[in-house]
Amino acid sequence: MKRAIELKVNGEMYPVSVSADRTLLDVIREDLLLTGTKKGCEAGECGACTVLMDGKPVNSCMVLVMDAVGREIVTIEGVGGLEGLHPIQEALVEHGAVQCGYCTPGIVMTAKALLDNQPNPTEREIREALAGNLCRCTGYVKIVEAVLAVSQALSQGRRG
Q1: Which domains does the chain have, with CATH numbers?
Q2: What distance in Å separates the CA atoms of residue 24 and residue 6, rounded to the nearest whole number?
Q3: What confidence tens digit (pLDDT) does each residue in 98-155 have?
Q4: Distance in angstroms (rounded) separating the CA atoms of residues 101 and 65
Q5: What are phi and psi of 147, to 5 degrees?
Q6: Among 58, 119, 134, 147, which one has the highest count of C-beta atoms within 10 angstroms of its own C-beta?
């Protein structure tokens, strides 16, 4: 049985008719047509489907859509915009931290949540935050360097 609900995604309200057993990931991709959030393992293991829910990174494949009602959801499409890439996206490119790109949206969302809540993390804290985001191509070194660079730039911007 379907229910009419509204989801707030990337600052916009979306009315959708869904069955209660659908995941947030499936609704984001199939109903809202926001395909930047990737469908990887569908078991909460790879982090490719990471979105922010009320500012915290979650594996959208593990969240029932009904649990997202009344929450603020941000997908990769809500990061950056017409004016340009988000600093995390820019840093990943500048540091050569993207290869196949499949994991990148989830990594961006996780790094954004980390830096939004802890603007000056250590390398260890970055690695711990990214532990749920699997990347088979890069080995994480350049990803961590990119997040550290954004953190340092943010710190310098606050002082200046």
Answers
A1: 2-78 (3.10.20.30), 87-159 (1.10.150.120)
A2: 12
A3: 989 999 999 999 999 999 999 999 999 999 999 999 998 888 999 999 999 999 998 8
A4: 26
A5: -65, -40
A6: 147
Number of CB atoms found within 10 A of residue 125's CB: 14
**Helix, strand and coil percent figures for the chain, each rounded to 5:** 45, 20, 40
Q: What is the pTM of this model?
A: 0.93
DSSP code of residue 107: H
DSSP secondary structure letters along 19-71 = ETT-BHHHIIIIIS--TTS----SSSSS-TTEEEETTEEEEGGGSBGGGGTTS
Helix (H) or strand (E) holding 158: helix 141-159
